[in-house]
Write a structure and sequence with these properties.
With 527 residues, the protein is an alpha+beta fold. It has 14 helices and 14 strands. Strands 6-5-9-8-7 form a five-stranded antiparallel β-sheet. Strands 10-11-12-14-13 form a five-stranded mixed β-sheet, covered by helices on one side. A hairpin with a 2-residue loop joins strand 8 and strand 9. The two termini are 72 Å apart. The relative contact order is 0.05.
Length: 527
């Protein structure tokens, strides 16, 4: 039935039900306690009155007369009226009445069967019995003569119905109070339900459960590692890839642990203090290079936590490698297309002008130079990626009218690892591009770039020199964003070159070239 109601209605129904049960239980307990307390008080009052009557000299002396009821009845009735007792009965040892609220019952035996403890054992006590007037609470006291002998009994009682009549006014007050509490409960439940509804953005339990499942599925599906902490630094969320990348035990739940106990050197606690995002931060953790993004979680301009996403840099480098290869391939095709279109146009013009000898010479030179380069690279550089890079840069140099040559003693025959190959693409590609660009302001006959490479010894050695103006500020050229040229996206190439060389544990030097420009020397350990 509750499925048909909203969350707010369910909360109101549940709260009212629990409140009603609680109030009903408390009311029953209250009435029982009140009734029991009044009964005990009336019993003590009855016993006190009975003790007073049993010690009255007039009552004791009346037992020595022939008609004790003539003295006891009027005396006791006055006392009964003053005390408010339902009855005060005085009886002899045979339980024959000498007093009673109803005069016609004088001389008859007392009813209830609870006189033996007073008449035989001489006790004073409170009893509950049903007499001629109905169920009552009674105080029983023996009457003794001057010698201490038991000569009779005094029974003072209050009807239980009369006690209940006293409780009824209290019941009305309690019921009124209960109605007020229920009304307050209804109003409070409404606002509680409304507040909860607002806190959970108006979602129903089924919707919350679905969103929780969707969130878990999304977090686990991403390839990045994800960790979230609260404002106290306790982990609230961590996915499977975070366990894998950080080499944590996935079977052991790390939720609830402090982030510094899991990652001692993390900067997530700094984000909690500064409230500033940290993007694309490179760190080394567990012998892995990671790229980390850390962002604060804000709620009403108050920071309530931090979420960090990270991924192994080698995985990103692999993607970068694939993209670089595609870009290089595209650049090669573009350069070749442009260059050969120019060559074909030139040859076509020579033929149309009937300069057949010049056209044939140009064809032989073009095919011979390009074919010689390919044959040289097949022997000197067996690695297809490195060789393809050089061919692409050669085509690019032809397009830019730059003379690009490779020293004939160059040779790289030692196999490259995937990481070395990927980093060398970045290093050589950026150095050659910088050299080509440096020469564009010079006359075409003075645009020279030479490259030497060898793997003799324990290192790979690469030298790239140009005939440009040289480097003026060597200390700053490797800083990210520094460039002597104008335009956007400058100052990145040489910075990437230096980072790649450092990643391969190599070194990079810059000197003046014999050609007049700069000479970049890169040394990379084979292992």
């Amino acid at each position: 039935m509750l499925k048909k109601f909203s969350l707010q209605s369910k909360i109101i129904v549940i709260v009212l039900t629990l409140l009603s049960i609680l109030i009903l239980s408390l009311s029953i307990i209250f009435f029982r306690m009140l009734s029991g307390t009044l009964t005990d008080l009336k019993g003590k009052q009855a016993l006190a009155v009975a003790q007073s009557v049993s010690k009255m000299p007039a009552v004791i002396e009346a037992f020595r007369t022939n008609q004790p009821e003539d003295i006891i009845q009027p005396l006791v009735e006055d006392i009964r009226k003053e005390t408010g007792a339902t009855f005060i009965v005085v009886g002899n040892k045979d339980s024959v009445r000498y007093s009673h609220p109803l005069p016609e019952r004088l001389g008859k035996k007392m009813v209830g069967g609870d006189n033996d403890r007073a008449l035989i054992q001489g006790e004073s006590y409170v009893s509950h019995a049903t007499g001629s007037l109905g169920p009552s609470v009674r105080g029983k006291v023996p009457i003794r003569n001057a010698q201490g002998d038991i000569i009779g009994v005094v029974s003072v009682g209050f009807l239980e119905d009369n006690i209940h009549d006293i409780v009824i006014p209290y019941r009305t007050k309690v019921l009124t109070l209960v109605a007020g509490i229920l009304l307050i409960g209804i109003i409070g439940s409404f606002f509680i339900g409304k507040g909860i509804k607002k806190a959970i953005f108006g979602l129903e339990p089924a919707e919350i459960a679905m969103q929780f499942k969707e969130k878990r599925a999304i977090i686990e599906s991403v390839r990045e590692g994800i960790i979230a902490i609260d404002q106290h630094g306790l982990i609230t969320e961590i996915n499977a890839n975070a366990h894998r990348i950080l080499a944590l035990n996935y079977q052991h739940s790390n939720r609830g642990r402090h982030i510094l106990d899991v990652i001692p050197d993390t900067k997530m606690m700094d984000v909690l203090k500064t409230r500033e995002s940290q993007l694309d931060d490179e760190i080394s953790l567990n012998h892995h290079d990671l790229i980390v993004n850390r962002l604060p979680i804000m709620e009403k301009e108050k920071i309530v936590g931090v979420v960090a996403s990270f991924r192994r840099k080698d995985e990103m480098d692999q993607l970068s490698k694939e993209l670089s290869q595609v870009q290089e391939y595209s650049s090669i095709l573009r350069s070749q297309t442009h260059e050969y279109r120019n060559k074909l146009n030139t040859i076509a013009g020579l033929i149309q002008l009937h300069h057949h000898e010049e056209a044939l010479t140009l064809i032989q030179e073009e095919s011979s130079g390009y074919e010689d380069l390919i044959q040289f690279l097949l022997k000197a550089v067996p690695d297809p990626v490195l060789a393809g890079l050089i061919i692409g840069k050669y085509n690019r140099s032809q397009e830019l009218k730059v003379s690009f040559s490779i020293h004939p003693d160059s040779s790289i025959t030692t196999p490259l690892s995937d990481v070395q190959r990927e980093k060398l693409i970045t290093i050589i590609g950026n150095l050659l591009d910088n050299a080509f660009e440096e020469l564009l302001s010079l006359p075409k006959h003075n645009r020279q770039v030479q490259m030497f490479m060898t793997d003799l010894g324990n290192d790979y050695l690469f030298e790239i020199e140009d005939s440009g103006a040289g480097i003026q500020n060597i200390e700053s050229i490797f800083k990210k964003g520094y460039s002597t040229k104008h335009g956007k996206d400058r100052g990145i190439g040489l910075h990437l070159v230096q980072k790649s060389v450092e990643h391969l544990n190599g070194y990079l030097t810059v000197e003046k070239s014999e050609l007049g420009g700069a000479l970049f020397t890169v040394s990379i350990p084979k292992r």
